[in-house]
């Protein structure tokens, strides 16, 4: 089995990436025409990688389970994308972005990768502007910035609340250019079901046409997995309902180590759960915390009256409101990192101050921002003595210009006007920092198999800062992978076309068909969703915002029992060789049932709290995360075992030479 070799270049931190690019092998343009690359996933990471690799001359095949790459979950990213351009002149720099990201991840990420991310961040903005991405601009025409959690500068570029969509359209247009040139061959409505290894190297995939049900073989000299995260292991999350772990888990089963599965992000600003009928949750962008103030009633009796419908939030006087983030973290206020804000909201609700019928919601209030902006706009417009209504109208227009589509979305879902009544929010599963282990080149422990974006573990440690997901996805796809994959492919210029009629492809296809047959053979009466919901409740209740040893062990036992029942009793209607959405879901839930147990095992073995991993046994007297740097300053990389609790742990020790490791403080 592969060893953990991070392949971090020697030399000073700020020179590592430049030196590495100068030292690695290249493939000349004539030879690139003879090399094939498969890219699984066409969101920001996969779409940008596919477009760039094809532009360089490689022959690219793309695979996505949606009907179009435009529907990748990247489209749901709302708030913005970070870059250290220092347009605001507020002290930002590559080092500051690097420092904030390392600190935000609670010192559990690899220094070299994070610095490279900061270093290439500015190039991303230039690339996207050149593609026509309509970033917001200031009055003078310069690109505008806003702040996100965990930082003291404004470095987030945005397009209202549609940043992910606009960036994805940019990558999609770049892909389309290469499709028209014949350099990208798209396979939409296809799902990767297995990774094919030949002589220990990734040489192709087995995919299923989701329209016809046909099983297909596709070969390549390298395979890039950019298939997103695994947040849907919780069933209820902000992820698209189709988001899954299958591509990454297939690679894991074939030998790619899975790193830090327990590092999962709970986003603090989501529309609260309204009942058991829901199949997904909706995110309210973190950008709203720039201008929205988070609060609960300071008096428990007021919270009880609101829950009973006897009191409205607008009737709570200012002095009777607890702006708890501003109170607990005065330096950062409402812009503390997501893990800190989420735990603080849970603490207030657990203490009885929650404000919706379930008691699991807090307020996000824009009244102060509307008044502040309204007074500014009145002065700009020469109105020295505006009425209260004029102030409101001016201020509402400013807020609408910045966040309008988010407010519309909230009103459609909740049926309340957030300009007049504070939004209700509560934490929900949003992003997964864990993923396939990759080295500095983004290569997994399987030679020729690469992972990009949320599918890998590399940049965010135990907690991702807001607006860094889009940054990492595009950095990996546009500016990292196209360099590093060439170093590997330079050894394949004489290999020739990879045949698909080899024993390895035969066996991989047989494995896929056998697994599908087994899924179809369940004789029970329970649907796939029945098992997915049960798994989700176990995960949320025992592996969610806080964990403890007793409940993690219970979760492992319960998931193992649920998995056994699933394989014996799941009912999948239809046939294998036709369109069958239930069969698709069954394969994904089968993977989640393995991942869930490994998730719990990873959390159980990490006897510390860090970032999004909060063990109740390890916290400061103030209730903050308590790391154990002496014993747990490492990446947990798990080797696959059919019985997840028997998975073998490999450790990548984290060495910090350029940053002081200390307890995070946002006070």
Automatic annotation (TrEMBL):
Parts forming coiled coils: none
Reaction it catalyzes: a quinone + succinate = fumarate + a quinol
Domain of life: Bacteria
Pfam families hit by this protein: FAD_binding_2, Succ_DH_flav_C
GO cellular component term, pick one: plasma membrane
Membrane-spanning ranges: none
Catalytic residues, chain numbering: 338 (proton acceptor)
Cofactor dependency: FAD
Annotated FAD-dependent oxidoreductase 2 FAD-binding domain residues: 36-470
EC number in record: 1.3.5.1
InterPro entries, per the entry: FAD-dep_OxRdtase_2_FAD-bd (IPR003953), FAD/NAD-bd_sf (IPR036188), Fum_R/Succ_DH_flav-like_C_sf (IPR037099), Fum_Rdtase/Succ_DH_flav-like_C (IPR015939), SdhA/FrdA/AprA (IPR030664), Succ_DH/Fum_Rdt_flav_su (IPR011280), Succ_DH/fumarate_Rdtase_cat_sf (IPR027477)
Membrane topology according to the record: Peripheral membrane protein
All residue ranges annotated as the Fumarate reductase/succinate dehydrogenase flavoprotein-like C-terminal domain in the record: 532-666
SUPFAM superfamilies in the cross-refs: FAD/NAD(P)-binding domain (SSF51905), Succinate dehydrogenase/fumarate reductase flavoprotein C-terminal domain (SSF46977), Succinate dehydrogenase/fumarate reductase flavoprotein, catalytic domain (SSF56425)
Keywords on record: Cell membrane, Electron transport, FAD, Flavoprotein, Membrane, Oxidoreductase, Transport
GO biological process per UniProt: anaerobic respiration
MF-aspect GO terms: electron transfer activity; flavin adenine dinucleotide binding; succinate dehydrogenase (quinone) activity
Location of this chain's protein in the cell: Cell membrane
NCBIfam families per the UniProt record, alphabetical: PRK07573.1, sdhA_Bsu
PANTHER family noted in UniProt: SUCCINATE DEHYDROGENASE 2 FLAVOPROTEIN SUBUNIT (PTHR11632), SUCCINATE DEHYDROGENASE FLAVOPROTEIN SUBUNIT (PTHR11632:SF53)
Protein family per UniProt: Belongs to the FAD-dependent oxidoreductase 2 family. FRD/SDH subfamily.
Name of the featured protein: succinate dehydrogenase
Protein source organism: Leeuwenhoekiella nanhaiensis
Source lineage: Bacteria, Pseudomonadati, Bacteroidota, Flavobacteriia, Flavobacteriales
Gene responsible for this protein: sdhA
């Amino acid at each position: 089995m592969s060893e953990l070799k991070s392949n971090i270049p020697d030399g000073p931190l700020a020179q590592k990436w430049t030196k590495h690019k100068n030292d690695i092998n290249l493939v000349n343009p004539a030879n690139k025409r003879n090399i094939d690359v498969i890219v699984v996933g066409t969101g920001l990471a996969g779409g940008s990688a596919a477009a760039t690799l094809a532009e360089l001359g490689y022959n690219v095949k793309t695979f996505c389970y949606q009907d179009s790459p435009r529907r990748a979950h990247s489209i749901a990213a709302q708030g913005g994308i970070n870059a250290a351009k220092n347009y605001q002149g507020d002290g930002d720099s590559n080092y500051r972005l690097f420092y904030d990201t390392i600190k935000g991840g609670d010192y559990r990420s690899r220094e070299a990768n994070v610095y490279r991310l900061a270093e290439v961040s500015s190039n991303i903005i230039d690339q996207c502007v050149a593609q026509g991405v309509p970033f917001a601009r200031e009055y003078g025409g310069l690109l505008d910035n806003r702040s996100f959690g965990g930082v003291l500068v404004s470095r987030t570029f945005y397009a209202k609340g549609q940043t992910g969509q606009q960036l994805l359209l940019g990558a999609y247009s770049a892909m389309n250019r290469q499709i028209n040139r014949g350099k990208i061959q798209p396979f939409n409505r296809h799902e990767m079901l297995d990774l094919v290894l030949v002589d220990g190297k990734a040489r192709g995939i087995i995919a299923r046409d989701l329209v016809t049900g046909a099983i297909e073989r596709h070969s390549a000299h390298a395979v890039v997995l950019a298939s997103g995260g695994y947040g849907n292991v919780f069933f209820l999350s902000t992820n698209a309902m189709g988001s899954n772990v299958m591509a990454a888990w297939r690679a894991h089963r074939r030998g790619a180590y899975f790193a830090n599965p327990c590092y999962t992000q709970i986003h603090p600003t989501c529309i609260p759960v309204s009942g058991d009928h829901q199949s997904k949750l909706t995110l309210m962008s973190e950008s709203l915390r720039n201008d929205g103030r988070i609060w609960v009633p300071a008096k428990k009796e007021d919270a009880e009256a609101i829950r009973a419908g006897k009191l409205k939030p607008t009737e709570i006087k200012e002095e009777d409101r607890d702006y708890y983030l501003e109170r607990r973290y005065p330096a950062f206020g409402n812009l503390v990192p997501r893990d800190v804000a989420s735990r603080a909201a849970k603490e207030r609700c657990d203490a009885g101050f929650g404000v919706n019928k379930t008691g699991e919601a807090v307020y996000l209030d824009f009244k102060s921002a509307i008044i502040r902006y309204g007074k500014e706009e009145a002065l700009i417009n020469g109105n020295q003595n505006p009425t209260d209504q004029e102030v409101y109208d001016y201020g509402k227009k400013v807020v609408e210009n910045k966040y309008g589509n988010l407010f519309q979305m909230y009103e459609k879902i909740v049926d309340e006007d957030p300009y007049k009544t504070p939004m209700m929010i509560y934490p929900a599963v949003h992003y997964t920092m864990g993923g396939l282990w990759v080295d500095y080149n983004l290569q997994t422990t399987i030679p020729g198999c690469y992972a990009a974006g949320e599918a890998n573990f590399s940049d965010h440690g135990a907690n991702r800062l807001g607006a860094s997901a889009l940054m990492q996805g595009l950095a990996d796809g546009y500016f990292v992978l196209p360099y590093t994959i060439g170093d590997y492919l330079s050894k394949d210029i004489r290999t020739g076309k990879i045949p698909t009629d080899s024993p390895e492809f035969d066996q991989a296809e047989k494995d896929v068909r056998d697994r599908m047959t087994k899924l179809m053979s369940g004789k029970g009466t329970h649907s796939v969703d029945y098992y997915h919901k049960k798994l989700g409740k176990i995960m949320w209740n025992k592996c969610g915002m806080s964990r403890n040893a007793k409940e993690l062990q219970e979760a492992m036992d319960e998931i193992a029992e649920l998995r056994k029942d699933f394989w014996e009793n799941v009912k999948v209607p239809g046939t294998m060789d036709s369109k069958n959405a239930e069969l698709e879901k069954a394969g994904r839930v089968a993977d989640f049932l393995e991942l869930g147990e490994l998730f719990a095992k990873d959390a159980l073995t990490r006897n510390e709290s860090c970032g999004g991993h909060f063990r109740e046994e390890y916290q400061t007297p103030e209730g903050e995360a308590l790391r154990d740097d002496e014993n747990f300053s490492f990446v947990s990389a798990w080797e696959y075992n059919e019985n997840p609790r028997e998975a073998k742990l490999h450790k990548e020790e984290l060495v910090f030479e350029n940053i002081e490791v200390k307890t995070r403080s946002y006070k």
